[in-house]
Amino acid sequence: xxxxxxxxxxxxxxxxxxxxxxxxxxxxxxxxxxxxxxxxxxxxxxxxxxxxxxxxxxxxxxxxxxxxxxxxxxxxxxxxxxxxxxxxx
Length: 89
Description:
By secondary structure, the protein is mainly alpha-helical. It has 2 helices and no strands.
């Protein structure tokens, strides 16, 4: 394995992480922003008001996109295993 192959594998791994984490992180960001705006307009400063909606929305996204995430990750893993003979030889 040369440096270009190792760099390509690392780039692919980082890209997979971004693709799989983006829906969860964007959901938490949007829900947090909405709750923050609500808190600012109503002057309610309850900490659990930010925590509970974020957790609920993240669980909903995982329930809806969990199958796609697992399929995407398993395909990436399968491609990595197919590359092992090329790396050895």
